TrEMBL record:
InterPro entries: Cyt_P450 (IPR001128), Cyt_P450_CS (IPR017972), Cyt_P450_E_grp-I (IPR002401), Cyt_P450_sf (IPR036396), Insect_CytP450_Detox (IPR050476). The lineage of its organism: Eukaryota, Metazoa, Ecdysozoa, Arthropoda, Hexapoda. It is found in: Endoplasmic reticulum membrane; Microsome membrane. Heme binds at C439. It comes from the Eukaryota. Its cofactor is heme. This is Cytochrome P450. It is a peripheral membrane protein.
Length: 498
């Protein structure tokens, strides 16, 4: 019996090793440059042992194969292609989107009942229907309604700074601001973000940006081993969405129905969906949580980096303040939609922040059917390569954002680069994604950042506190660009009207 079991183990081991070695010849057979894999791990050993994040592996490959439009690596044993050529990237995200229409991340309803209904995680027809429903909620007409709400939150932010102290932590401040806007503009509710120490919007958001190493491992299993994820019932959010959020959404909907209340906000859109189709509670809360994910955490991270960048440069800050003063004077002190559009330099500062501090360092897609991609093989000959169905597609946004071919002196914070040819320069910034899968809340995010800049810079000048560590570093085990150490900002009273 022992001999039999030993034989089975040996045969099984041989089969597995043969399979992996054959698998690891995938890019070699195609004459495509690639990072050398290790048995079982592929190129993920440093990720597994928490030595490096996945995006760092990809960026190192970008430097090694900088002369090639694409290169290969292995996410364990799954072939993964990393694109570096901007035209090839645009082709896959826009022109040939139907070959790469799915995000690599998908979830199951039984383990992630709320995240399951987010358009980011949906595929195929379900994604198209959700996209069709949600897109109209972020049109300029809808966003105009939100401007007064954002202004009021901005005033509360300024008062909070005045009441507290001159030095405040940027991420905490940004989370209070974006959380309150989501609650007010999305659900018509006060989150009391500038009253309570741990307001409800921030309490709900804690799970999204959790930094536990176990969470990192769960995310890795969930992302790269979907079969194992289903077997072990690994959840991306699961219980991290507190019951209070579900109660808030459902109770507010019920209150509006009973009292026949209608408001031009996101929750009213959810109510209108309910009248046109049968929706489960999970689906209702999932749609509501879509706004929360798009409007709260990623926006608060971007705002944190914006405060950090503006506080670092007195010159940039003074240009912003001068533009805000002139535009507000032209509009008699009214922050209208038209006034916000005229804040060109503030807009450039936001996009330069997005370039240097994108919330996500990578975009991940899944090849849904075989695709012929033009490339240069490892012998530097022009050829085509077949990207097979099931291959992971990586777009290294950070590598593109720091590529001197697209952005001169990429290590320098220089907003003026977006003033000379804004459409061209913005096309090289992929922080919001591109094509049909572009972030739905991008205009919402930029709008709330602009309103915040007007509110703060109209009353204060910003300086980095001496305790703030420079340069900016992100937490290694968080998929988002969360700062590793506190970003402390000194707020010095300096009203524009004086």
């Amino acid at each position: 019996m022992l001999i039999f079991l030993t034989s089975v183990v040996l045969v099984a081991s041989f089969v597995v090793i043969y399979f992996l070695k054959s698998r690891y010849e995938y890019w070699e057979r195609r004459n495509i440059p690639y990072l050398q894999p290790r048995l079982f791990f592929g190129n993920m050993a440093d990720v597994v042992f928490l030595r490096k994040p996945f995006y760092q592996i990809c960026l190192e490959g970008c430097k090694k194969f900088s002369d090639f439009p694409l290169y290969g690596l292995f996410s364990f044993w799954t072939p993964t292609v990393v694109l570096q050529d901007i035209e090839l990237i645009r082709s896959t995200l826009i022109k040939n989107f139907n070959y790469f229409e799915d995000h690599f991340l998908t979830v199951e309803h039984d383990t992630d009942p709320i995240l399951y209904f987010n358009p980011m995680c949906l595929t195929g027809e379900a994604w198209r229907n959700a996209r069709l429903n949600v897109t109209p909620q972020f049109t300029p007409g809808k966003l105009k309604y939100i401007i007064p709400v954002m202004q009021n939150v901005g005033k509360d932010l300024v008062k909070y700074i005045s009441d507290k102290q001159t030095c405040l932590e940027a991420k905490n401040l940004a989370s209070r601001y974006t959380g309150e806007i989501v609650f007010m503009a999305g659900f018509g509710l006060e989150g009391k973000s500038f009253v309570n120490d741990t307001p409800i919007p921030m309490e709900i958001g804690f799970g999204i940006s959790a930094n536990e190493k176990m969470m990192h491992i769960k995310h890795m299993i969930g992302t790269f081993f979907p079969s194992l994820r289903r077997l072990l019932k690994v959840s991306f959010l699961g219980n991290q969405v507190p019951p209070s959020f579900r109660d808030i959404v459902l109770n507010t909907i019920e209150y509006r129905k009973v009292n026949k209340i209608s408001r031009p906000d996101y929750l009213n859109f959810v109510i209108s969906l309910m009248s046109n189709k049968d929706m489960t509670e999970d689906e209702i809360v999932g749609y509501a949580y879509t706004l929360y994910l798009d409007g709260y955490e990623t926006s608060s991270i971007l705002l944190t980096c914006l405060l950090y960048s503006v506080a670092q440069s007195a010159t940039v800050q003074e240009k912003c303040r001068r533009e805000i003063r002139d535009v507000m004077k032209n509009y008699q002190g009214q922050l209208t939609h038209e006034a916000i559009v005229e804040l060109k330099y503030v807009d450039a500062v936001i996009f330069e922040t997005l370039r240097m501090h994108s919330p996500l360092a990578l975009l991940l897609r899944l090849c849904t059917k075989n695709f012929q991609a033009p490339c240069i093989d490892k012998h530097h000959k022009q050829t085509d390569v077949t990207i097979d169905k099931g291959t992971i597609l990586v777009i290294p946004t950070k590598a593109i954002h720091y590529n001197p071919t697209f952005h001169e002196n990429p290590e320098t914070f220089y907003p003026e680069r977006f003033l000379n040819d804004p459409l061209l320069q913005k096309s090289y910034v992929l922080g919001f994604g591109e094509g049909p899968r572009i972030c739905l809340g991008r205009n919402f995010a930029v709008l709330q950042l602009k309103v915040c800049m007007v509110a703060l810079l109209s009353e204060y000048s910003l300086k980095l506190n001496e305790k703030t560590i420079v340069p900016y570093e992100k937490l290694m085990h968080n998929i988002l660009n969360v700062p590793k150490s506190p970003i402390l900002i000194d707020f010095v009273k300096a009203p524009l009207h004086e």
